[in-house]
From TrEMBL:
It comes from Methanoculleus receptaculi. This is DNA topoisomerase 1. Its EC number is 5.6.2.1. Residues 347-367 are annotated as: Disordered. It is an enzyme of class 5 (isomerase).
Amino acid sequence: MHLIIAEKNISAKRIAQILAGDEKVKTTKDGSVFTYSFDNRTVVGLKGHVVEVDFEPGYANWRSTTHTPRTLIDAGTVKKPTEKKIVNLIQKLAKKADLVTIATDYDTEGELIGKEAYELVRAVNPDVRVNRARFSAITPAEIRAAFENPVELDFDLAAAGEARQTVDLMWGAALTRFLSLAARRGGRDILSVGRVQSPTLAMIVDREREIENFVPQTYWVLSLTTEKDRTTFEARHTTGRFTDRDAAFTAKERTKEPLVVTEVKEGQKVDRAPTPFDTTTFIVAAARLGFSAANAMRIAEGLYMNGYISYPRTDNTVYPGSLNLNGILETLKGGVFDKDVAWVQQNRRSKPTRGKKESTDHPPIHPTAAATREVLGEEQWKVYELVVRRFLATLSPDAKWATTRYTFDASGETYRAAGGRLIEAGWRRVYPYSEAKETILPAIGQGEKLPIREVKLEEKETQPPARYSQSRLIQVMEELGLGTKSTRHEVIGKLISRRYVEGNPLRPTLVGRAVIDALDNHAATITEPEMTRTLEEHMQLIKQSRRSRDDVIHESRQMLHQVFDNLEAHESEIGNEIMEQTAEERTVGSCPVCGRDLRIRHSGASQFIGCNGYPECRFNISLPGTAWGRAIRTDETCEKHNLAHIRLIKKGARPWDLGCPLCNHISSNIEALYLMPSMTDDLLQRLHEQHIYTVSDIAGMPPEELAEALGIGIEEARGLAGEAEDALEVLRRRSELRKLVRKIVPPRKGRSHAKIFKSLLDEGIGDLHALSQAEVATLKKAGIPETAANELLDEARRLSGERALREAGVPAVSLKKYLEAGISRPEDLCYLPIPYLAGKTGINPETVHKHVDLVCRHLGRPTPPKITRQAIERGRKELLEIPGLGEATLQRLHLAGVYNAETLLEADPEMVSSITGIPKARIHDYIGHLK
DNA sequence: GCAAGGTC
């Protein structure tokens, strides 16, 4: 069997289709992995890398005293499978193979992926022949040629990739651990460092510093307006920017008629058709349509997977000769592009445009099939159309402009006006994404004199450089060689998720700056694009067999050791600097009570804003729990309280902007404060002036302090504190009710728990007790479905009964026994006969009587008389002597209060029958027997 | 828990 291993499933499928020719390809699904078979060949796709390098076991603990971050430099590495199903399948197939062809992508990383597959094959089949097919595009011609002339795996090329893997891992992991430990940051807050991410972050930080340090310069621009044939137009002074104010004003004063045309220059300009899309130029073009880099790539990948466009991750800007451009044009005919395609076919340029970069991995991004807006949907269509139109543009002739330039003299001051007119639209007919802005000037002859309608002197300021947009950053990363076509947009995502940068355009956060500062000062190598360049040079040498992989890694290890010499000598200094710089990220503003810093604090699932002066100053602002998202500070500030706004961020959820935390704190506590009977608008204002915002603030304050703060008497303050305590109790009960509702009632569209809870409150149901007495109909009106309403009522009755029993003083051990026997309502204890209660729970009747007494007093009802254990035992014997009366009947009689001969004789048979369900006739029989 | 590189 001939096993062919491709880089990914879709390649495997298409390679199989091409090689099979007319033969049918058999698709088999093994677990979740597809294989494609024909003749005696089987093609299987990897998923890129299916193994990963990691340190050998023993380095998992970051805080190990023996395996410190530095020891990672010399730690051994292992390759471990990340895609177990694929690895297993490859090895299963490899055992049966007599030839294996590696058909991964034609680039360094592809060669390494191929070598990984080779090693998996070798591990189970040491002798099988393994060769390599190389192709730049999955087209019939290329694929057939590649398989007709297979070559050998290039182990040097793969070794270059391995060197990169090892170097990246050891630098990244060692520095990440070192920095995170020094700054005492763990979990979600680790400080990551890497060959690509750190220089990228450094660019953003540097740009921000440039902007901050920018000193604007004032300059002046001088222009005039003139007219010919009733067309007015502008001419600018040939000194584009006057930096000297006096010179500008003098020039303006001197500008006088006559305005004489001294030179007329007409020409033509070629406006070159754009070059084929590689990933970067595609992302930049998509950004102009409003797509973020990640979004553009996501959509392009979708279009690729569905066969509409070619592979979107490519560095190539030159169509390979094997690509059938005419065929693609034919494919696009008939749809909305029909006219454009026809035009391109008629006006085709001799050779398609070509960019500067030519590579072997994939062709430039181009359409591969026709599609319609209806099938794709708006977003995908926009991206697809962009790719189609770009493709058409690369086959279209250049555009041509006619240019005109007039030079004027106004009493010694020279002015110039430039015009441009599109004479041949060329590619612009099919690629309307960049506007062709024409400036049409009237025809004027040399020596002509024109009037001056207006002379305008504008004062302007030089502007700081712009922040990087995502697409601009990707462009610059490419220029510097940072990252690859597949990873550049992901690197930006990584910087955002590490909270190093935010916003669009991108701005660094305090943590981002602190990390770059620390690295710049002590490990500058990793923040410079130079490192990538050197690594690439070394990889080049490995590919050419001029250096070995191990030699390159060894040199890198030594450099990293030197870096660590410096880092370890300054560990605490580095850590302190980062911690100091980042303390500000948690600081929301200053404490309104004492003026010290207010900081966001986290403890487990709860978070709040606390004063740095704690415990002397206890001022704090509550925040929603971390389940709603982790609180971070934003750049917006509340004008009223001078505090930074808070945002709650949660993975996979839209961020929740809370706004000013104090405004939020105040408004969410007002309703609770009005639960206090003495609360008035005036009192509320006085409390707020003293920065007392919550009921628990009042309840927790010593009355003396409260009295002083409000300028009231101590008794009045005590009264307020008492009211606050009561309000707290109401709130506590409400939250208990809320919890139960949330637990039992399933949330539904349009009926949030908050809404249900509000309707319940409106119905006067504010705690479990009130709920336990409610009607099902009321609950249904509040939006609770009937089954849930019944369950809710049962649960509320049980819970509130339990509470009442506890409050009445029934000890916990006994309470448990009552509950287990299904007795949870206090009324049950008052009305059910003691013998029955004792029998059901196994509690001593005397003790039961004590409980019954407690509960009856609590409910304000009379306590039934005591019945002793002996009395019950005696009565039991008496009753069991009656023929036909057994243990079961006895228990039922207990329920009706009948526990001995006497009570049976006194009982009303009708009543006993209705309570116990024993036929009346039989009760008469029992009584008759006794008589 | 760490990188960067594939792919989804």
